[in-house]
Amino acid sequence: MTASLLRPAAAEFLRIAVAVRDLTAPTPCAEYDVRGLLNHLLYWGPWLIAAGRREDPPAPADGEAEAGLVAEGWRADLEKQTETLVEVFGTPSAWTGVTALGAAPMPAAVVGAMVLGEFVLHGWDLARASGQSCAYAPEAATAVYESAVAMGDQARAMGVYGPAVAVAAGASPLDRALGATGRDPAWMP
């Protein structure tokens, strides 16, 4: 997986996210409506940025559910956060060595893969929830799929992924990534 996949994935993610209008629409993530999913992204983005910079994470006053980050100006906040994530993880050195996401040390490449996965998977979630299309590069979707397979058991045990969803043998790289992370590629609101 390379840092070069991030910029185009981030651009597609932002194209989708800033066009969202109905914040109460359901998403493929059963625990989130659109507002909740955007709040999730805005809450965890600073943690990912800190991990990429090898800095201490922010000290939030509230947990994710209570944070209420989708307020006036959320689009600009998400754009700025996404640009910062691309800046931080857009260099190969950000993907080397060890970092920490909070107190949990982990390979920096795993955190970089998480960032790419956030753009691709949650971009698809938002596209489905809002009736938009999405067009991620097959290479980005393949990288997300490979990461999901490698981390699948651990991610499912932590409640990050749902049970894998079977997809057709000739499924696109994006559909394979969706299925590996517990998403039904045919999901509709």
UniProtKB/TrEMBL annotation:
Transmembrane segments: none
Annotated InterPro entries: CHP03086, DinB/YfiT-like, Maleyloyr_isom, MDMPI_metal-binding
GO molecular function, one term: metal ion binding
Domain of life: Bacteria
Stretches assigned to the Mycothiol-dependent maleylpyruvate isomerase metal-binding domain: 7-127
Pfam families: MDMPI_N
NCBIfam families: maleylpyruvate isomerase family mycothiol-dependent enzyme (TIGR03083), TIGR03086 family metal-binding protein (TIGR03086)
Annotated protein name in UniProt: Mycothiol-dependent maleylpyruvate isomerase metal-binding domain-containing protein
